[in-house]
Design goal:
- It contains no helices and seven strands.
- By secondary structure, it is an all-beta fold.
- The protein is elongated, with a radius of gyration of 16 Å.
- It starts with about 20 loop residues before the first strand and ends with a strand.
Length: about 110
């Protein structure tokens, strides 16, 4: 099936295309289980109009290394906020708190 409809970029994320951007990567270590929300600091982040990506993983509190534990860990939402912050919703399918690392990636 071929689609010939070109979708133009939205301008909802600021001034459009950025070439040669500077990228920030900021880890945040939290503990939690079930579905929970966190507001995280994002130094230098331009605000609600900026582009934010995130990843989530369980990590060993002993070594600090990421691990593939038995729990299913899912990142549901990433919401850029003003004031150099981002709100995330995470789900950890485990009956007790686990060590979770949320890593933010964004353009400065």
């Amino acid at each position: 099936m071929t689609h010939n409809n070109l979708v133009e970029p939205t301008r909802a994320s600021g001034d459009g295309t950025r070439l040669n951007p500077e990228i920030a990567a900021v880890p945040h270590d939290v503990r939690g289980h079930g579905v929970f929300e966190q507001i995280l600091d994002a130094p230098g982040f331009p605000g609600a109009g900026g582009m934010m990506l995130a990843s989530v993983t369980e990590f060993s509190p002993v070594t600090g290394d990421p691990i593939m534990g038995s729990a299913v860990v899912t990142l549901h939402n990433v919401v850029p906020l003003n004031g150099h912050r981002v709100q995330v919703r995470v789900e950890v399918e485990w009956p007790e708190d686990l060590s979770i690392r949320i890593q933010l990636f964004y353009l400065l």
